[in-house]
Design goal:
Order of helices and strands: EHHHEEEHEHEE
EC number: 2.3.1.-
Protein name: Putative N-acetyltransferase YafP
Organism: Actibacterium lipolyticum
CATH architecture: 3-Layer(aba) Sandwich
GO molecular function, one term: acyltransferase activity, transferring groups other than amino-acyl groups
Keywords: Acyltransferase, Transferase
Helix content: 25-40%
Strand content: 25-35%
Amino acid sequence: MTPPTIRKGKPGDGPAAYALFYQAVHKGAAAFYEPKERAAWAPPCPAPDWEARLLSGHCIIGEDDSADMIGFMTLGKDGYLDFAYVAPAWMGKGVATAIYDEIERIARRENMAILSTEASYLAQRFLTRNGWQTDARQNVIRSSTTITNFRMSKALP
């Protein structure tokens, strides 16, 4: 399998990123979250500020040979990993690793001392394999629905 092409996010990526996010939550995370939780986490339509939020820091996109988006991650200037999603058909095929490697390169280049996130059950497994630690299990409220996630961090030496 050809490794994904990695590029920076750009204006206009919002709709494809939201479609991927929606599928990753509703299909990719289905084994970990109930339908009500997934619906609260990823409603059918994005918030009006979706693309601005997506592009507010470092947005790294993975694409297949046809230039279709197959994954993305975002990293804020403060070291917060906000989004980390891979299309369900591409999960387990190295896409997340390729994108994450670029995210960590950026963090090191910018001398970020600590990375942090609030990870889903699925993301927690991936991040743990990449040297992150779980700091706390927490319940967050989205649209009156409680969703479990994990506060995680990674110190960059």
